[in-house]
Amino acid sequence: MSAEVGTAVAEAFSEQWGRVVANLIRFTGDWDLAEECAQDAFTLALDRWARDGIPRSPGAWLTTAGRNRAVDIVRRRANEAAKLQVIATEPETRVAEAPQHAEEDDESGVQDDRLRLIFTCCHPALPLDARVALTLRTLVGLTTVEIARAFLVPAETMAQRLVRAKKKIRNAAIPYRVPAAHLLPDRTAAVLGVIYLLFNEGYAATGGPDLVRHNLCTEAIRLARVVVGLMPDEPEAHGLLALMLLHHARCSTRVDAAGDIVTLDEQDRSAWNRTEIDEGMRVLDAALRQRRPGVYQIQAAIAACHASAPVAAATDWVQIAALYAQLARLMPSAVVELNRAVAVAMAEGPAAGLTLLDALESKGQLQGYHLLPATRADLLRRLGRPSEAVVAYREALSLTATDAERRYLERRIEETLQLVS
After folding, report:
1. Per-residue pLDDT tens digits for 179-190
2. Which 3-state string (H, E, C) describes 229-282?
3. Cut 0.85: pTM above it
């Protein structure tokens, strides 16, 4: 297999996985079978594209290959002959066009293919976390491990949730289609959650060689723009778009030329994307004018505090700490409390932050989350307790999954060891 083919298949997976799986779900009515056939199609592509060349329309090729694989599997299942008849009678032209076009006319108003698929998966009959997780797995192509890390649960737990969600869809005969426009608000929270976690995986990858996965960031921002256009009176959609724009404006400065982490206080602020910052500020203002505050708007306001500070020392940490306190009231979360502890440490001193961190750690909610010991280590180092800091840094190092974060923690350990007399 040539490097060119490997790259083409990888790009097709990133861009077409969700569309291929969604169309196979529609044809088979079986989520597990659809994912299995999609995986087989991508595997087959590695061999066939090396032999026959890369097709002009990879998505259509993969959809057809997956469909053919589904027909083969269903044919072997004598008790599913009726399902085979439905699949086999689908026109070939319909299959080839499916990855690029909506599957049917509807009254939803959702014209974007990928967003249609996300709205479809986020069915209100499923628990919110299951909707988000299932959509990330099926349509975005994140692994179960990546999704589990995003939800701070063991991979086995997340795998069980995904199985239960698929089983409920099958047993309840939940239709795989976009609802009418007046029903879309019932799914908005889950859709925004999917886009938010998609961006987070791009902005700070849960594993692999790269800290930032730019393609996921840009896709999340694109989807948020579509949602804002679809729901111009939904302030949280504006808040999410603003949040992502303000964060993404700093993306190019988060790692150096060697791929190593550059902390926020050390980033070259002149290299931040001012166009994205300005747009993010405008979008946030539009959201706040509606006077219906929500978690994404508050997070965007926190990002705006960072983006508006000309130098790190000018950051309004008192305001950021207050915003995190407000966020914690709206969305009680151990991760929010961890971030609030950092903000309080910057506003009032590391001792105050460490007190909050001790209280958080005593609850045991962030066990296995590498940023908890990493934050403790930073506070201990600032308090002049380097030996304890090294222990915490080493714990964080044992838990992190990205190469860039490992290198950063290793440097911190070396620097802190030099302070131990």
Report:
1. 777 777 888 888
2. HHCCCCHHHHHHHHHHHHHHCCHHHCECCCCCECCHHHCCHHHCCHHHHHHHHH
3. no
